[in-house]
Write a structure and sequence with these properties.
Cytidine Deaminase, domain 2, nine-stranded antiparallel beta sheet, alpha+beta
Length: 227
């Protein structure tokens, strides 16, 4: 089984002078070492959106290339140990947020801001589910917890993979898995949509059932072979 693409969680204080500092190990895993300062946000991204997709400019379709307003600079730090991401309104966009996720792919990264206080990431792994409706609207679900733990209770109790998901809600107070969160946000617009799962190898039985009931077309797991 291929490894899932990485998802990282960041606290707002991790911004330095309005820039996001990304660690070298993460860069190794996602291949961003080869990126030039060419990540862009299409014009339709706005301050009201809770997620931004920053794409390698080489992958932006010609049809929307002339709508690009802002370029995000991605540069290696002086000591070479980190990469620094800067964008004209990144700090302003994240103002008032409690933290943010970044889902990495071979064409760029999606940043998802979190505005809920007293929440945090799931101890075992960060997961994002990006649901794209038939009309192109984007809904991003997370596996955020209201009572985050330092160690996953499923590991503490020796649960096998796929077992003990009830502990996520009972102990971590996780409102739902990322797939269900995305479907809930989309509502009727989930019908016919596609979910791209990042950070996990598969959708559990409950998430698959929920997707089927909502008439989601398919769930695609984004791994190291899929951009």
């Amino acid at each position: 089984m291929n490894k899932p693409l990485i998802v990282t969680y960041h606290n707002i204080p991790e911004l330095v002078d309005g820039c996001l500092v990304l660690s070298e190990p993460a860069m190794d895993m996602i291949g961003l070492r080869d990126y030039s300062a060419s990540l862009v946000i299409p014009n339709r991204a706005s301050a009201e959106m809770d997620n931004w997709m920053l794409r390698d400019s080489a992958t932006v379709p010609e049809a929307i290339a002339d709508t690009v307003e802002h370029y995000a600079q991605l540069e290696r730090s002086e000591n070479g140990s980190t990469l620094i991401l800067s964008h004209p309104v990144l700090e302003e966009w994240l103002e008032g947020s409690s933290g943010f996720y970044i889902a990495y792919s071979t064409i760029g990264m999606r940043i998802v801001r979190i505005k809920e206080e007293n929440t945090g990431p799931y101890a075992k792994q960060n997961v994002l589910a990006t649901l794209i409706s038939e009309d192109g609207e984007v809904f991003v679900g997370t596996n955020l917890c209201r009572n985050p733990q330092k160690e996953c209770p499923r590991d503490t109790f020796g649960m096998k993979s796929g077992e003990g998901y009830h502990l996520c809600e009972e102990i971590c107070q996780q409102r739902s898995h990322a797939e269900v969160d995305a479907i809930t946000q989309a509502g009727e617009k989930a019908k016919g949509g596609i979910i791209y799962l990042t950070g996990h190898q598969y959708a559990c039985g409950n998430c698959s059932s929920c997707a089927e009931q909502a008439s989601v077309k398919t769930i695609n797991v984004r791994n190291e072979r899929i951009g």
